[in-house]
């Protein structure tokens, strides 16, 4: 709700404008630095215009095990690369006011892979962060919120690793929402595919997908026990935002922390659930959600030159934004032992 008691309403036209600017071409710190700088400046300007205080956090990472950012449909774990040195920067934004107590982080990565304008992956996620900034600036926020725009996700979650380390010191993060490829929907039967082995590991979510004829008409809400209540909050808020948007919660059975990371390496189908910037927060024991349209399991343009603004559904993207703003502003406490 806004300060005057009215529901939070996202603007589909504004979301499209954000995506069209950001996805004018490929953007990355190494392969397309000029475009990356232009995109970073746009994000900063939009956040400041919405009333947020923006801090640029440069980082210099050495000997990082990550991935290649060449185009292709393979998952991060199948594109390993050891990076000797990477220099990048995250953007973190807060509303003016007291700077104490744990925060809820809402984040998305700004970079794209080589050769792709990255409208869905991940201008869609950044656009939601920017529109969420506008909505939360007008809302009475219970938890404190930090908006994060991460660098070098496509190189192996490099920027998010830095941000998770910085923000989680001293229990500084209460929860995290990651927006990863959230704008592509396809209502055609058979549009949604499942990873190999998914049906055995996650029978309920697989059955729910099959019951709709494998239509790509939902947002997957990946969570763990520690963020299960937040996933339900998001699902309810999405239903209230639009009858055309369904939130499908999917529980990752792994625990937060190092044990969950190691299990993912041993069970590859489960590791699909850690393919974005929420994973470094999970690895530090932070309750987190990943919101996604499932990327390469639905979108035929994933990591290709055809991932353009005209392929996205901006009305549904507006509903994703509204549900995200509601969840960030009412983040529930994690269960004990979560």
UniProtKB/TrEMBL annotation:
InterPro entries linked to this entry: M28_fam, Peptidase_M28
Gene3D superfamilies on file = Zn peptidases
Domain Peptidase M28 positions: 90-187, 271-325
Q: Transmembrane ranges?
A: none
| Classification via Pfam families | Peptidase_M28 (PF04389)
Protein name per the record: M28 family peptidase
Task: Report the source organism.
Answer: Streptomyces violaceorubidus
């Amino acid at each position: 709700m806004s300060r005057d008691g009215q529901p939070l309403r996202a603007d589909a036209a504004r979301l499209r404008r954000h995506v069209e600017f950001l996805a004018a071409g490929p953007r990355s710190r190494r392969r397309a630095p000029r475009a990356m700088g232009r995109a970073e400046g746009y994000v900063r300007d939009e956040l400041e215009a919405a009333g947020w205080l923006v801090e640029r956090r440069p980082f210099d990472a050495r000997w990082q095990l990550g991935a290649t950012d060449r185009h292709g449909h393979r998952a991060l774990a199948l594109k390993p690369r050891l990076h000797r040195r990477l220099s990048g920067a995250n953007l973190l934004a807060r509303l003016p006011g007291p700077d104490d107590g744990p925060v809820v982080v809402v984040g998305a990565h700004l970079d794209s892979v080589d050769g792709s304008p990255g409208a869905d992956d991940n201008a869609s996620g950044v656009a939601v962060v920017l529109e969420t900034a506008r909505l939360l600036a007008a809302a009475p926020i219970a938890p404190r919120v930090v908006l994060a725009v991460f660098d070098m996700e496509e190189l192996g979650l490099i920027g998010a690793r830095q941000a998770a380390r910085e923000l989680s010191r001293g229990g500084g993060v209460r929860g995290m929402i990651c927006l990863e490829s959230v704008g592509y929907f396809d209502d055609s039967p058979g549009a949604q595919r499942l990873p190999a082995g998914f049906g055995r590991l996650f029978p309920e979510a697989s059955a729910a997908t099959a019951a709709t004829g494998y239509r790509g008409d939902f947002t997957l809400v990946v969570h763990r026990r520690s963020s299960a209540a937040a996933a339900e909050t998001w699902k309810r808020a999405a239903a209230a935002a639009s009858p055309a948007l369904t939130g499908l919660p999917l529980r990752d059975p792994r625990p937060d922390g190092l044990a969950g990371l190691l299990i993912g390496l041993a069970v590859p189908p489960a590791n699909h659930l850690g393919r974005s910037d929420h994973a470094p927060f999970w690895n530090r024991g932070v309750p987190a959600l990943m919101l996604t349209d499932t990327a390469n399991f639905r979108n035929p343009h994933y990591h290709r030159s055809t991932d353009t603004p005209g392929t996205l559904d901006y009305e549904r993207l507006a509903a994703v934004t509204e549900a995200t703003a509601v969840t960030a502003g009412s983040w529930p406490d994690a269960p004990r032992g979560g």
